Every structure is written in C-alpha cells, then in structure tokens.
Amino acid sequence: MSATLPVLPLAHPLILLPTGRVTLPVSRRIGEALLHLVQQSEDQPIVAAVPLTSPDSSLYEWGTASRIVRLIKPPVRNPKQPYLLSLNGVTRVRIVDDLSSDLSSGIVHLRVEYPTTDGVPSPENVMKFKAAALKLLNQLARDTSQEAKRESFNKVAALVEEVSQVRAAWIADVILSSTNAEYQDKLDFLSAANPDDRLSRATALFMKQSSISEVSKRIAQSVDESLSKQQKEFFLRQQLAAIQRELSNLQRSSSPLTTGAPSSPSEDGRPRSASELDEDQQTEVDELADVKVKIEAMAKDSEERKMAVREWKRLKRIPQGSVEYGVIRNYLEWLVAIPWPGSSTTAPSTSLETLRDRNFLKKTRQQLDADHYGLEQIKKRLIEYLAVVRLKALQADRETAERAVVPQAVVPDTASEDPAKAASRRNTVKGPILLFVGPPGTGKTSLGQSVARALDRPFQRISLGGVRDEAEIRGHRRTYVASGPGSIVQALRKAGRSDPVILLDEIDKIGQSNFHGDPAAALLEVLDPEQNHTFNDHYINVPIDLSQVLFICTSNTLDTISAPLLDRTEIVHLSGYTYDEKMHIARQFLLPKQLKANGLAPEQLTLTDSALIHIATHYTREAGVRSLERAIGGVVRYKAVEWAEHLDGPADDAEKIAKQYKDVVEADELEAILGIARWDAEENEREERRGVVYGLVVTSMGEGGILPVETIAVPGSGQLKLTGSLGDVIKESGELALSWVKRHAYDLCITTSRSQDPLKYPSGINVHLHLPSGAVKKDGPSAGIAMTCALVSLLTGACVPPNIAMTGEITLRGRVGAVGGIKEKVLGAHRANITKVILPWTNRKDVEHDVPLEVRSAMQFAFVRTVEEALEAAFGKGTLGWRPKDVLLESRL
Ligand SMILES: Nc1ncnc2c1ncn2[C@@H]1O[C@H](COP(=O)(O)OP(=O)(O)OP(=O)(O)O)[C@@H](O)[C@H]1O
C-alpha cells in the first residue's frame, strides 16, 4: 500500500520509532505549513517523520508515519521563537520517491509505501526476545535508584511476560523507543519491517545493552573497592600505631640490659619514640586516645555524648590527611574539653562544700575586706547576695537528697518532668545577676575575683568592649573556614568546671544589632535564667547548660545598656573614692602590690602621707585608683633603679656614702621622679570670667567632674548658637535658659522695659554658647542652671567665682528640678578643688546618703528650688541688681 505524505525531516541524531513520542521545535516556515495542514484536516493529520542520517545528508529510506498530536504557536510578543510540535509514531513507512528532494523550501510531499508489518513471528524468536528483554528490564530495575523508574521497568517486564506471540514485535517497538540504544542500531531497527526480523534485532540489541550495563556496574564496583582499600589502609595504620605504642611500653618496662634497647622515658614519663620523626604520630595517637577517654566519660544518653560518638565514627571513616579530618578532630577536641555537668572527667565542684560551711558568710566578709578597702555598702550588698546564693544552693541540695530518699515508684520521672518546673528548680541555685556600674579603676573586676574566691570557684573574664559580631559570643557555624566556638565556651573550657564565676566586662560597650547579628541579644540569652540552661553555641551545636555559672557584669555607664539586659541584672553602683579612701587603698594595697611587683621589700621604701596625697591630687584626677597605682608604680620603679645602683655601686666607702640610698620619698621629690604635675596647670587656668560658669558632669566613663559653660556675645540679630557636640536635650536646655533670661531681663536690669529683647537692646548681638571638649558628645538636661548663670553673667557683667560649680535642670517657669549622678558629680567637684556646689533642693537626700562625710565637711552646698535662688547662690547675695517686684504684673500673670 502506498500514499503521498508530507515529510518532516528529523535533524540528526533524532529518531522516532513507531509507538514512540517526541516533542521538537520546528522552524517558523515548517510550523506554518503544519498549521495549515492541521487546519485543513478534520482528524489529527499524519506526517512521515524521517531521520536525516547525518546533519547535512539526505533523507533516510525509512521513516515513521506519525500523528501530529500537538502544535504550539510561538507567543505573539516573541514571534521569533520556534513552533513546538508533538508527534506520536504509528507505523513504519519506506520512501519510494526521490530521497534527495530539496528540503529547504519547507514541507515536501513524497510517495511512501506501508510495508506489511503484521504476521506472526516464530515462537523461538519470541522466546529469545522475551528472555533478553526481561533480563535487561530486571537489570535496569535493579540498578536504578529512583522508585518511580523501577516501578515502570517492572510494569513493562510484566507486559513482556504476558504478551502474545502476535504482539511481541509491537512490544519490541515500545521498549526500543524508550531505551537509549545507539543511533545506528535504532536506524537498523527502523528499517526492520518484518516481525521476525524486528524481534531478532531487538534481541541482539537488548543483549548488547545488558552487557554494557553489567560492565559499567563492574567498573563502579571496582572503584568502590579501591576506595574502601584506602579506608582499610587507614584502619590498619591506626592499628599499627596502637601496636607500636604497646611495643614501646613493653620495651620501657623491661630492663635496657635484657632488651639492649637504648630507650629512656621522656620527662613527662611517656616512652620516647624510636625516632623523632615518629614523635608527631605518637602525640597524635595519644591525643586521640585522650579524646576517646573523654567521650566515654560523658553522661550516658546525653546529647553531647551522642554528638561526640557520631563525630568520632565519622572521623574514623575519613582519611587522615583530608581537610574534613582536621575539621572534625578540632570539633571533637572542643566538644570534649567543655566541662559537661554529667561527665566524670569534669572537675568536681567544691563550691557546695564551701557553701555548707557554717562560717561561710564570715569568711566571705574576711575575704572581701582582705581584697578591698572601704566599699561598705557594696560589700554589704555582696554579702546579702552570697547569702541568698548559699540558701538557694543548700535548699536545692536538700531537695535533691529528698528526691533520692523517696522510693523509686513515687519519684516523678525526670524525663517527663515539666520543663518549666525543671527550669525553676535549676534557677533556685542562682540569685539575680549582679551588675557593677562605675568609673574605671574602682575595683569592679577585682570585686568579681573576690566573689569567685569566696565561693571557691574558678574565675573567668570575658571582655565585651567592641564586640560587634554575634559570633564572638556564640561561635561560628562549623561550615565556616577556621570556625571556632564563642567566648562563653572558651571561658568554660578554661575554667574546667561547669560552675565558674564569669565576669562579663564592659557590657555597655557591646555592639548593637548589625549585619553580623545582634551580640546584645546573644548576651541576653546567656544571662536569662529561663533560657541559659540550653545555651546554643553555633560551633558546638549541642545545648550547653549555663545555669550553674555565676555571671557578674560590669559597665561604666547605664545609658548604653539595652532595657531588656538591664532588666535581668541587679545594679550595684561604685561611684569612686574620696582622697581619704584613696590614701588608705594606696597604703594598704597599691603600694605593697607595686613593691612586690618591682622587687623591693617594704622596709626599702616609704612614701610619706604628704607625698601620697600629692600624687593623688596633682598627678591623678580620677574616680578610681588605676592612675594612682600607675603613678605609685612609677615612683617604686624609680627607687628600684636607685636601689640597684646603690647595690652595684663602687666599693669605695666615700663614694658609697655620697650615693646613699634614701628609703623615704617626700612630696617635694615627686617632680623629679614623675615630672611636672598635670593638674597644676589646669587649676591655674581657672579664673573668674564674664560669661563663664562651671557645671558638673558625669562622663560616659561614669566619672564625675567639672565642665565650663562658656558664652560670648558677637554682633548679630538676637540668635543663639550652641556648639560642643550637644545632643537635642542639652540644646533645648540652652534655649530654655535663654528664654528665662529674656523673660527676666527687665527684672535683672539688663533692659529698661519689659518689651525689650536683651539680645537686641542696646545693640543687636548673637550669643554663642560653647561646652569645651568639642569632640566629646554631651547631652542631658542637668546643665540648665549652669547655662542660665552663664547667660546672666554675660548679659549683666557679673561673674561667678571659679570655685563654684553647679548642676540642675530648669523649667520654663524657673523651677529647678532634680538630676542624677550626684555622688559622682560631688566627688568630681571635690577632686577639682571646687569648694561650693549648687544643687537642686530635691537632691538634698542624695548628698546626705551618698556623699562621704569627709567630702561633705570639706565643701559648701547650696540647695536651690528656683533659678533666682541659684543665681543668688552663684553670684552671691546682692551682686545682681534685681528691680523691685512689679506686683501688678505678677498678679495679672
Ligand atoms: N577598694 C579597693 N581596695 C583595694 N584595691 C582596689 C580597690 N578598688 C580598686 N582597687 C584596685 O584598683 C585596680 C583597678 O581595679 P579594677 O581593675 O577592678 O577596676 P575596674 O573597676 O574593673 O576598671 P574597668 O572599668 O576599667 O575595668 C585593681 O588593682 C584593684 O585591686
């Protein structure tokens, strides 16, 4: 039978077998011709899909009559895209026309012949075909890892088994059209129209396919084998190392005479390796053995143990030289180094014993007194705190003991215990978290150390100043190159116990949330008793229980600490020392410490009281004692050199007497030893000037001091200019002060009528108000009265003496409101030789409670309620010429 069919050439190496299906892109021209065809015919039109045997050759003699099942036009917005054509192969056709027809002009119509493809193949051929097909299909099903594929192979296999003799050739077409046989084989198969012929070709092809897949499997297997050989080698090497270790142990224990081996143990008692080249290998083995022991010591069924075992197994599988090996080993070393509470290698806690001691509080007091002078309030607070810690620990201990006594059946299962309850039980061991706030050098860190000593726990300090990256606290994930755990885990490892005292230094300087995460939030998790029993370090990746750790925080100021963090702490203020306290600290602690550090005996150097006070007043001006310690250190070092020269000096008696060593340092020698006193110059500079008044401040370091408020008048039109890195609040204080002064300019006799603006009368001026140290940021409302006094001084010409300093917020109505940091400010003023301070009336109690008597008695205090009272206290009674009160106006107001 023959017919004329439109011929679709299939680009090399595409081929469509009967029963197969293909989707291919076709050019616009062919697409349009096919579309025309589709539109013309009622049914799915038939085309002859004929392969091109090579990219530029003519048509193959055989093709497949196929139905067009779908033709997709390119989208309108992109007409250059090809058409998409889906064909379904129906039956073989042979072209009986000219095979070299010109195909470039689009679809050509050629005469084709339908060969007789039906007929029953011989049973022998069918049997062979079935066997080959089943073998291949089973093999394919076995080798594939995809479940769906396996199922479809099995289905086809079932079909093959059941297929009748008549349909056998058809199923050969089905299988071949979906397996990836070679192109040439498929072409041959296409040309086989006779069923017997088709079956025998298919059988040969299937056999070829299954032998190919067998060979490739064998290759894969041999690759696998060679890999496991590497692993085998690794294990053998490990065993070899172990055998070598045992052998050298044997050698060591037997006498050198009998063995004749020159083996001597090394200093640490380990056998010395035969060659130094083996030393590394030996330590490696020892270290790994150590890790193993520690893993075995971990609590059974604990998370950390599971993780360690898993990683250990992985380590053993990996070749020793690989990068991954190093990473896992490093991780394991960290994991086992953490003092896990349940591990038998973790140092046992002695603190419970210490807490049980009846004299615990007495001893603690003695410890605190031995380490620090003064600080009565703080020591009292610490004793209270430690008493609470003790009570709670003992209570928790009692509860545990009771739980152990109750028969097993009644004891609630800990695993099924409510986690909240478990947490609260854990929390009972702890008190609140202490936060020491104060200027540098006031003993915050050393108080933390004293607490650790009193509790007999290891002490670790983590400095948080400048920590911008969350990973510094929490560690980097293991996927990072050179990752490691965060500072908390490092501190725990160094402490070696699960209950150390950890001092988180300078929490006010921790970075805020940024693209490196939020370090403050990580810290919050560390400190929060609700969360910290499952602290998650990114590197370790096993929850770590921090509930036994006693955290103490220090900071210089409270301003930059986030509210949630503050909320979790109990604040203890250390405001700084008076001169008297500094003298005692210097004599009892700093001088002996420096003498010891510099190799002098106490009898070899004495500093007179006047010398010590001179150092404290003229060479240092700080709330704490760190500079004082440094200056004393300077004096001691100077004398140490003199002493050394004296010892090494000439033997000649006369000269020796001339170079006599003097063991006392007087105040007048200090200039020769320490240089010119820094603070002398500043004091001399302070003078009485129009428009300048001294305010009281607390710096960002928490240290009190004085700060001049300077004002000048420049020609202008009544503007106020504020400079000195001022924040919004302090700027508003400046404007408030000016408004008050303008409002009272007439009363202060600055203007001659109420309607006149003092900045415009008698001539136009601008006022420039500046707070020096321009680079330091300043803010807050407490400079209100100082600014008002400075403006009044500028506009009236009256001056405030330089020994007066003041602080206080003002309101628009002229009231003076309370401010904070009174103790720091007054102590700072005292250090700066201020003799009179003006403070808000409402801060009276702060002075009485907080300021030491020694300072109170050395200074004069003026507590004021209104700006008028402040002006009177600053300028002196009667200095400012107040106009008699305008009774009428006041009553109208
Ligand atoms: N009351 C005191 N008695 C004895 N020594 C003290 C006292 N206060 C501070 N010191 C000593 O002063 C030195 C500085 O103290 P420390 O390092 O504790 O200061 P700090 O407040 O932690 O400072 P920073 O805020 O800068 O960390 C230490 O050598 C400490 O022993």
Description of the structure:
The chain has 893 residues and is an alpha/beta fold. It has five domains: 2-113, Roll (Archaeosine Trna-guanine Transglycosylase, Chain: A, domain 4); 123-220; 351-406 and 417-573, Rossmann fold; 604-680, Orthogonal Bundle (Helicase, Ruva Protein, domain 3), CATH 1.10.8; 687-892, 2-Layer Sandwich (Ribosomal Protein S5, domain 2), CATH 3.30.230. The protein has 32 helices and 22 strands. The strands form five sheets. A seven-stranded mixed β-sheet has the order 16-17-15-14-18-21-22. The protein has a five-stranded mixed beta barrel with strand order 1-3-4-5-6. It has a five-stranded parallel β-sheet with strand order 8-9-10-7-11, sandwiched between helices. Helix 2 runs antiparallel to helix 3. The radius of gyration is 47 Å and the shape is elongated. The structure holds adenosine-5'-triphosphate. Adenosine-5'-triphosphate is lined by residues 372-375, 440-446, 505, 554, 556, 585, 589, 624-626, 629.
Which descriptors apply to this entry?
893 residues; elongated; binds adenosine-5'-triphosphate; 5-stranded mixed beta barrel; 7-stranded mixed beta sheet; Rossmann fold; Archaeosine Trna-guanine Transglycosylase, Chain: A, domain 4; 5 domains; 47% helix; alpha/beta
